[in-house]
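re: ur question from yesterday

yeah so i grabbed the chain u mentioned. its 260 aa long if i counted rite. heres the sequnce exactly as i have it in my notes:
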Amino acid sequence: MKIIGKLGQQIRTWEEWERPASPTKHWVPGRSAMEIARAFFRTGVPQLPAAVTSILESHARFAGFVAHTARPEHKTDLPPHGSSGPRNHDVWIAGTVGQTPACVGIEAKADESFDEPLSAKERYGNDRLAAGLDTDMPERLATLGPMLFGASFSMSDPRYARIGYQLIAGLAGTAIQAADDGAEVAAFIVCEFRSERTEVAKQEKNARDLEAFVGLLPGGHTLRPGALVGPFHFPASTFLVHPVDVFIGKVTVVVDQIAG
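ran it thru and got these structure tokens back, copy pasting raw so excuse formatting
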């Protein structure tokens, strides 16, 4: 597997990993940005973290997955492609299962939240529109919500309004990027890092938020430890060049087992 940077350069050590937008805050031991970099170089050479390999092997659609390239801080445009910006995958992985293209999008977390809830994003967007300022956030929520949840989606329903924005952006971005890459199957994986530096209460809230999100998706799936759930099917549309099945999973990595 090759790890490729934003400028097309090959990343050969975790220290060369692409930095996040706020490196002074996030590029420190125990935070997700640095720990996901270390996880990909735990043996000194680039390879999938063992926990990610294990969860992929939990489902037949990913059994035998071979990663070819990984791209830290990879960006995927989200509809309506305006001022709200792209989905920023912490790592985007392209590979194959046999001869079939398959992709994996990783959302790395220590104890950071999944961003503001959709209700706050909608309120922010409406306030900007009322002030005559540029934003496409209300239109984005109105597009991504039905894409993920179907006709039942409504911002007036508190179950949806409480969802962290990164979850809908992550799942939608995984489906869109996989289709752009020519893959018909993909996985959206939350990779959580635990250490003495992380707060248990925050991680427990993240776990509840992720479980609630999965429970609202079509199919009545329940998140199971160490296993992929799904698939969640996304038909071809104006922003999906072909249908994609996306699975969801979560893995937990103890930081000290990687960083020492």
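noticed a couple things. The mean pLDDT is 93. also The longest helix spans residues 200-216.
anyway ttyl
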